[in-house]
Design brief:
The chain has helices at residues 42-48, 66-69, 129-136, 153-156, and strands at residues 23-27, 30-34, 54-58, 63-65, 89-93, 97-101, 109-114, 117-121, 141-145, 150-152, 176-180, 184-189, 198-199. The longest helix has 8 residues, at 129-136. The protein is built from four helices and 13 strands. The N and C termini lie far apart (89 Å). 26% of the residues are buried. The protein is mostly beta strands.
Length: 222
């Protein structure tokens, strides 16, 4: 006698999460000196960092402060609307957050203009100290100041101070204050592009050459 055998097919459904694309900026509670080389808007930033945690975004020209945003009479003081490629920013948070972003692709030779005095930049690619000096020239490069690393021409010229120079190269996602004695361009070779250099933005950085230290956000201590 033949038995009818009933086969049951088990259908396994795989739920796959979309991979995270882009780069991740790890931001700590308090002040962060960073760069993204993106055009990420404030609106997009606020989709990842709650408004109550985003206290300040401070560039060398534009600013966003939660204090201004919460006060109708001060709201117009908020001039920051998006990151700009080549510019660095101080970001102050209430607590730690991760910010996912996409870099805007550039190619060829691209220059960041440096005005005499202090400039807050976001390097476009890796570059070590010797390469920076070869472009800006040793007498012209006075200071490179990161959040935790520093190069000072003064230290380089005094043997007992040379160990105080801790900067050796630009790091990804970090921004830097650069002080130069006279105007200069810092040019990055980003590959597969023109042999002539494109300047990222007009040299609008205010001349603050009389300032003895880079402008720091209020309350920041080194």
């Amino acid at each position: 006698m033949l038995r009818a055998v009933k086969l049951t097919l088990a259908v396994i459904t795989c739920i796959c999460l979309d991979p995270v694309y882009g780069k991740v900026l790890e931001l700590k509670s308090g002040w962060n000196l960073v760069g993204t080389n993106s055009k990420m808007s404030l609106e997009s930033i606020l989709t990842q960092i709650p408004k109550e945690d985003l206290l300040v975004i401070q560039g060398d020209q534009k600013v966003y402060k939660k204090l201004y945003e919460d006060n109708a009479s001060l709201k117009k003081r908020n001039t920051f609307t998006a990151f700009e490629i080549g510019r660095g920013y101080w970001i102050k948070l209430n607590r730690d957050h991760s910010l996912i972003y996409d870099e805007d692709p550039l190619s060829g030779l691209v220059s960041i203009p440096l005005k005499a005095g202090w400039n807050l930049i976001d390097p476009l690619a890796d570059m070590n100290l010797n390469e920076i000096i070869s472009q800006i020239e040793y007498p012209n490069l006075l200071v490179i100041q990161g959040q935790v690393v520093v190069y000072k021409k003064l230290y380089a010229e005094i043997p007992e101070f040379t160990k105080r120079n801790t900067f050796d190269k630009f790091e990804d996602k970090a921004a830097y204050w650069i002080k130069v004695a006279k105007d200069a361009n810092l040019t990055f070779d980003l590959g597969s592009g023109s042999e002539t250099s494109d300047v990222l933005y007009p040299p609008q950085v205010p001349d603050t050459s009389s300032v003895e230290a880079p402008p720091m956000p209020p309350g920041f201590s080194q």
